[in-house]
């Protein structure tokens, strides 16, 4: 019998991949499941984005292999987007690399910079893919605590007190998922200085910067950050284009070139029409963000009402497309609580434990649910 690679022994199937089979099984049985677990935008992309996609399908170049580094007009649109919204200057020919989704970038960056045995600083709580990719490429996860009492920000003094001699890379994610912590420029400034002192590559994963968040910041706002930092971003959340799989990474020419070495051996470029649609999305006016956030704001107020029904605590200053809520003290097991809600009220909510041990007493609600469904969920309690 042919055995799978030993690297697969270091990881498990992604939580949502497994749990959604269970949820879909309940739906098949006729259960009226309301899915509040997944951050998959349910609203449509802008009309002009869809038009740019469809009209480009007849272009003679549309069905050919595309450049490994994307269309020049897409890279230019990304540079203009970052200049306009983040006040960051990037050279579009050398400091930007479009990706087939920013999740792809997590793997490509890890493959480009990690050797077997290198340690990676990973937030706890944080996106589980940081851990799984680190293990798949032979790296060693080294978790750093994010705690409610510190506003879910890194404790740099605690980090500095560790043995960092084997640390090569550090994952950041601000605005933060799952907690909704905003982060700030002073934090980024301290982290850049920390990275320079310890020869660590910082990667800020930044897909939630426009959702219910008025202030867009980037780690690249900090002077000298390109020497030690990359930033990932995505069109998935901001533009309702999750299934399009369009992301990008920004940084110094040297760092971007290292990622290109990996990416160019992994795919043959992004579909032309997707790139054309992406250009149009990046050119949208501020009215787009206002309209989307108006909907998310209404949904969030209803989610707060639902969280109140469950006696949960939450931070009204948090941003992003989730509500991170602490369960009441009388709940002994969050996982059992989640399953009780799933099987008794037919509502799927994400347990905070999947994001790390510091999420053990929390649950996460997605705002990617229509208002009428959230109202229905409230009524079920």
Automatic annotation (TrEMBL):
Keywords: Aminotransferase, Transferase. InterPro entries: Aminotransferase_I/II_large (IPR004839), LL-DAP_aminotransferase (IPR050881), NHTrfase_class1_PyrdxlP-BS (IPR004838), PyrdxlP-dep_Trfase (IPR015424), PyrdxlP-dep_Trfase_major (IPR015421), PyrdxlP-dep_Trfase_small (IPR015422). SUPFAM superfamilies: PLP-dependent transferases. Its EC number is 2.6.1.-. This is Aminotransferase. Residues 32-381 form the Aminotransferase class I/classII large domain. GO terms for molecular function: pyridoxal phosphate binding; transaminase activity. The lineage of its organism: Bacteria, Pseudomonadati, Bacteroidota, Flavobacteriia, Flavobacteriales. Belongs to the class-I pyridoxal-phosphate-dependent aminotransferase family. Its cofactor is pyridoxal 5'-phosphate. Gene3D superfamilies: Aspartate Aminotransferase, domain 1 (3.90.1150.10), Type I PLP-dependent aspartate aminotransferase-like (Major domain) (3.40.640.10).
């Amino acid at each position: 019998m042919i055995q799978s690679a030993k690297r697969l022994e270091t990881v498990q199937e992604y939580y949502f991949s497994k749990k959604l089979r269970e949820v879909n099984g309940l739906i098949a049985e006729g259960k009226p499941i309301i899915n509040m677990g997944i951050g998959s935008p349910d609203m449509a992309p802008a009309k002009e984005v869809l038009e740019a996609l469809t009209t480009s399908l007849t272009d003679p170049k549309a069905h050919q292999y595309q450049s490994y580094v994307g269309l020049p007009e897409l890279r230019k649109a990304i540079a203009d987007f970052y200049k306009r919204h983040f006040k960051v200057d990037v050279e579009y020919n050398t400091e930007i690399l479009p990706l087939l989704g920013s999740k792809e970038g997590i793997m490509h960056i890890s493959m480009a910079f990690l050797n077997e045995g290198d340690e990676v600083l990973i937030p706890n709580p944080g996106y589980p893919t940081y851990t799984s990719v680190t293990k798949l490429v032979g790296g060693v996860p080294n978790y750093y605590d994010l705690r409610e009492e510190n506003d879910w920000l890194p404790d740099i003094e605690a980090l500095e007190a560790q043995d960092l001699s084997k640390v090569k890379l550090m994952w950041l994610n601000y605005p933060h998922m799952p907690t909704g912590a905003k982060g700030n420029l002073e934090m980024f400034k301290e982290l850049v200085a920390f990275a320079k002192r310890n020869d660590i590559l910082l990667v800020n994963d930044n897909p939630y910067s426009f959702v219910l968040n008025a202030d867009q910041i980037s780690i690249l706002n900090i002077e000298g950050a390109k020497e030690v930092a990359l930033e990932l971003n995505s069109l998935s959340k901001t533009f309702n284009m999750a299934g399009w799989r369009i992301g990008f990474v920004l940084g110094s020419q040297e760092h971007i070139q290292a990622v290109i070495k990996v990416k160019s051996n992994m795919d043959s470029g992004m579909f032309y029409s997707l790139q054309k649609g992406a250009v149009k999305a990046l050119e949208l006016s501020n009215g787009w963000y206002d309209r989307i956030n108006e909907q998310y704001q209404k949904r969030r107020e209803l989610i707060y009402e639902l969280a109140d029904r469950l006696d949960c605590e939450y931070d009204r200053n948090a941003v992003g497309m989730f509500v991170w809520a602490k369960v009441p003290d009388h709940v002994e097991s969050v996982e059992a609580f989640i399953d009780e809600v799933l099987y008794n009220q037919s509502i799927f909510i994400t347990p905070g434990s999947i994001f790390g041990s510091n999420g053990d007493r929390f649950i996460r609600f997605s705002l990617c649910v229509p208002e009428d469904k959230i109202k229905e969920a409230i009524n079920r309690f």
